[in-house]
Write a structure and sequence with these properties.
- The structure holds 2 protein chains of 2 kinds.
- Chain A is 43% helix and 24% strand.
- By secondary structure, chain A is α/β, with parallel strands linked by helices.
- In chain A, the strands form 3 sheets. In chain A, strands 5-4-3-8-9 form a 5-stranded mixed sheet.
- Chain A is globular.
- The relative contact order of chain A is 0.19.
- By secondary structure, chain B is an alpha+beta fold.
- Helices cover 16% and strands 50% of the residues of chain B.
- Chain B is built from 6 helices and 38 strands.
- In chain B, helix 3 packs across helix 4.
- Classes of the chains: A alpha/beta, B alpha+beta.
- At the A-B interface, strand 1, helix 4 and helix 5 of A face helix 3 and helix 4 of B.
């Protein structure tokens, strides 16, 4: 009986460990800088991409800005390999979220990119990915942060270094043609 | 005065709708009516929701979130908060998630319930997302009929209620209008260094200084910022003629990173910085982390704080990762030996023994009287590599003494006579027997006699990098043979004047480039062309007078045979045996 009990406990532990893995699907909806509705699921149906890069950005984040030219350079090649990209701009300050949107818009008008840029006004996407966190009415944002999702919107890789994500994509898509 | 005030107020109220139309409106999402008691059927409920949606829309105050967007968000919010188990998103957590995703500033929830027989109540609540609280509510009793509910909704004034936000907005827009209208001036902003960003009241007006921008009169908070510089923030009273000339204060320090030994890759804050020694790199103030990246050493890391203007020097003392070598030595007869061991040229001791050595050691050298042994190393950290060295006699090249063996130079292994070395002019006679093939199924055979005069440019000692230039005059008798036409007759006389450039890379011969001008042995037929890639193999039988013979293994002549009846051009591949008489 004791042995049986021990086996059950071990199995439960294993189940717990297995269950703690992040199997969550990170589908999201948002609005781009022009107020157009964006739904990742619909985007997938349109693009048929196999992987999705979700790059969290903030206007006050210099590394985020520096990464954009790299993404812009890689983007056509990534698209050919079935990889799509979305930038999610997070407000740097919750209290100024609305005022900051024109600044972000102006930034992306000056520094044009080929991929879609969302403005996550209320940190809905940021909270979902755990990039933003609100405690005691104060929101903290952890950027740069890049996620690579598969076509089930599950996280394949997460990194603060965009280069690592690019390398991972290259590894995953070597020899892949869309 | 009263009239003036009245006029002003009229103007303000007239202008409000225009302004509110131009600015970005608050976003409002209208949720489906909650009719838990099923007083109305589903279709009617949808109609009521649409009616409320329209009522809010016609106020012109809000940007209405489309129903399709709302439904997608609703689906998403339910999935996120209740993993699909809940049919409706009614609890606060779900609604907050929904509004956040829709980026709605306000959410409208409507509930219908039966109070008692023949009397129902409609409640509409406006939820402020930012405040996370209900900010407005409309409630009315009706007779539980369609007509009754429409009447109740019509009785609500969705614009007339208090709205703090709306009041603030009127004031803000009115101020902006003054700015745009007339009370502004152009302000020139110059900074040192240039390319700074300028924000006025939190709004970016200039991305790169210097710039000139129109700013409204009055007090404004001006922020000027540039990476690695202290942001300048100050309130300015903007008046005509205001110009801002600012020197930004640097907000960086320097870091110098050395290592012992040098040549270590350094990563600063997760980014490659270069290889040590790294001198005086600009670095922003604050906390940083530098670390080495080297597979042969234990990596070192240092966290440090840079203050403004500070010149920080970091020196990493690297400890090599270690492996071990167990070395034994034997001679070729399998006798164990005591031999000296060197790793990467550094003596470590005598065999047999085991030593700790750096992981990335490149080679081992074992030496004793009986011989030596060398081997490339490939070591693994923490493991002992066994090297059983079998020492063999080293083959050492010892040049023969000058008195007993002919020196390998221009004089004795002679190019000076044959191909004009050492800047000397030379003249010698030769005889060759060319045997070769031509196009058009023909080959020729013959005998040439000639004289060669040349001058060389090599030095006596540097015999292997020597070239010479010579002019060669030949006369000979040759015959062409065509496979179809047979012998084409003996040429009575064949004269060629060649100029050659010979490259003597090796003692045995080298390629040559030759220009040809010659006769063919036929009347009025001449040969003009080039010859190249001759591989000469001179064999000197009599080294004292430099006579011998030379075999030209491959000679390619490309020429043009004027007026020949069976060939227009020719490429001749031939081997010639050339006898030289000095």
């Amino acid at each position: 009986m004791k042995k049986l009990f021990a086996v059950v406990i071990i199995l439960l532990c294993l189940f717990q460990v297995y269950g703690s893995n992040d199997k969550k699907a990170y589908n999201f909806i948002s609005y781009d800088l022009n107020g157009n509705f964006f739904n990742l699921k619909a985007f997938k149906e349109k693009t048929k991409a196999k992987y999705y890069v979700v790059d969290f950005f903030s206007i006050v984040c210099e590394p985020c800005k520096k990464a954009l030219p790299d993404w812009e350079k890689e983007y056509p090649e990534l698209q050919k390999k079935g990889v799509e990209m979305v930038v999610v701009a997070l407000p740097s300050d919750k209290m100024k979220a609305k005022d900051e949107k024109p600044l972000v818009k102006e930034y992306f008008e000056t520094n044009k990119v080929s991929f879609q840029v969302m403005y996550d006004l209320f940190y809905a996407v940021g909270d979902k990915f755990g990039v933003s966190k609100t405690e005691h009415e104060k929101t903290t944002v952890e950027v740069p942060m890049v996620f690579l999702l598969n076509d089930e919107f599950k996280i394949v890789k997460k990194s603060t270094k965009h280069i690592e994500i690019i390398e991972e994509i290259k590894k995953l898509t070597s020899g892949v043609k869309k | 005065m009263r009239k003036l005030k009245l006029l002003f107020l009229t103007f303000v109220f007239l202008i409000i709708p225009l302004i509110s139309g131009a600015a970005e409106k608050d976003r409002l999402a209208v949720m489906d009516i909650q009719d838990s008691e099923n007083i109305f059927d589903a279709k009617t409920q949808i109609k009521f929701t649409d009616y409320i949606f329209t009522k809010f829309q016609i106020t012109g105050v809000y940007w209405m979130i489309p129903k399709a967007d709302r439904d997608t968000a609703l689906e998403q919010a339910i999935a996120d908060t209740a993993e699909g188990s809940r049919k409706q998103c009614v609890d606060e957590k779900c609604q907050i998630s929904l509004t956040a995703q829709l980026q709605a500033n306000f959410l409208i929830n409507t509930e219908i319930k039966k109070l008692y027989e023949g009397t129902c109540q409609i409640s509409i609540r406006k939820f402020d997302v930012e405040k996370r609280a209900g900010v407005d509510a409309w409630e009315e009793k009706f007779d539980c009929t369609d007509k009754g509910i429409y009447g109740a909704i019509d009785s609500f004034n969705f614009t007339g209620k208090k709205s703090a936000f709306q009041a603030g907005r009127i004031s803000e827009e009115a101020l902006n209008m003054n700015v745009e209208a007339e009370d502004s001036t152009i302000v020139k902003i110059v900074t040192e260094p240039t390319e700074a960003i300028v924000l006025v009241d939190g709004i970016m007006i200039c991305q790169k200084t210097p710039c000139s921008k129109m700013i409204a009169f009055g007090k404004h908070q001006v922020t000027i910022q540039k990476e690695n510089y202290v942001p300048h923030q100050k309130e300015y009273d903007v008046k005509a003629g205001l110009a801002l000339n600012l020197i930004l204060e640097p907000n960086f320090g320097w870091v110098t990173i050395n290592s012992e030994p040098s040549g270590m890759e350094i990563e600063l804050d997760g980014k490659d910085l270069g290889v040590t020694p790294i001198s005086k790199r600009i670095i922003e103030t604050g906390g940083h982390q530098a670390q080495t990246k080297n597979k042969c050493h234990y990596n070192e890391m240092e966290k440090f704080v840079i203050k403004r203007g500070e010149d920080k020097v970091i020196t990493f003392k690297m400890n090599p990762r270690e492996s071990a070598l167990k070395v034994t030595a034997k001679d070729e007869q399998d006798n164990d030996l005591e031999a000296e061991v060197m790793v990467d040229g550094n003596p470590v001791g005598k065999t047999p023994k085991t030593w700790k050595v750096p992981l990335c050691s490149d080679n081992i050298y074992v030496k004793a009287d009986v011989g030596e042994f060398t081997q490339k190393l490939s070591l693994t950290e923490g493991e002992i590599k066994v090297v059983d060295a079998v020492l063999k006699k080293a083959v050492v090249y010892t040049p023969p003494p000058a008195s007993t063996a002919p020196a390998y130079n221009n004089y004795n292994y002679d190019y000076s006579s044959r191909r004009s070395g050492s800047g000397k002019f030379n003249l010698h006679g030769l005889m060759s027997i060319p045997v070769g093939g031509v196009f058009d199924k023909a080959f020729y055979i013959g005998i040439d006699f000639g004289l060669e005069i040349g001058v060389g440019s090599g030095s006596k000692a540097d015999y292997h990098r020597f070239f010479s230039w010579s002019i060669l005059a030949r006369m000979g008798i040759v015959s062409d043979f065509n496979f179809d036409k047979g012998f084409l007759g003996m040429r009575s006389f064949d004269f060629k004047l060649n100029t050659k450039l010979n490259f003597w890379y090796l003692a045995g011969g080298g390629p040559q480039v030759e220009a040809l001008l010659g006769t063919t042995g036929y009347p009025n037929k001449y040969l003009v062309g080039v010859s190249m890639w001759a591989i000469n193999l001179p064999i000197y039988l009599w080294t004292d007078d430099r006579s011998g013979f030379n075999i030209t293994l491959l000679n390619v002549d490309m020429g043009w045979d004027y007026n020949a009846d069976y060939k227009k051009g020719q490429i001749v591949f031939y081997t010639s045996f050339e006898f030289m008489f000095h």
